């Protein structure tokens, strides 16, 4: 099953990516959005993961961390048996609980905001609804999983520039 893992820069260096709430095309989503093709349903799940990435960024900022202000989603293919219902009833219909960490050989792509939306990411992480709405219109850039370490270096460089500013 294809899942979308909300992530931050730290996840690019994790081996494997830790278990957490992830998003995917679930039976609940298919019931809620009938008559749509798989591509539309996957986009809904990806966007839910991007929103969850924003919440991770907000938590890290609240803890005083400096990090690149970019949402990140890791797309992975995992067997259905490593997924269960999300533990909280207020989770989206796309939400699933990942039972075990995901090895990088299961990650198929990395999706990241470009640097032009950093101000909106920071504002949305702080609760700005207008910035959140603008981010909803911003597509994440696609990277092949083989670009993971180069992407981590580039984002770390951006992080250092932000710290020096």
Describe this structure in words.
- Helices cover 41% and strands 20% of the residues.
- The chain is of the alpha+beta class.
- A seven-stranded antiparallel sheet has the order 4-5-2-1-3-6-7.
- The chain has six helices and seven strands, in the order βαβααββββααβα.
- The radius of gyration is 15 Å and the shape is globular.
- α3 crosses α4 and α4 crosses α5.
Offer a quick outline of the entry:
With 165 residues, this protein is of the alpha+beta class.
Strand order across the biggest sheet? 4-5-2-1-3-6-7
Number of helices, where a helix is a run of at least 4 consecutive DSSP H or I residues: 6
- Broad shape: globular
Mean pLDDT: 90
Helix amount, in percent? Answer: 40-55%
Which structural category fits the helices and strands? Answer: alpha+beta
Largest sheet: 7 strands, antiparallel
Question: Keywords for this structure?
Answer:
alpha+beta; 6 helices; about 20% strand
Secondary structure: elements and pairs:
Blueprint lengths: L1 E6 L1 H4 L8 E4 L2 H6 L5 H25 L9 E6 L5 E3 L9 E4 L8 E6 L5 H8 L3 H8 L4 E4 L3 H17 L1
Antiparallel strand pairs: 1-2, 1-3, 2-5, 3-6, 4-5, 6-7
Helix pairs in contact: 3-4, 4-5
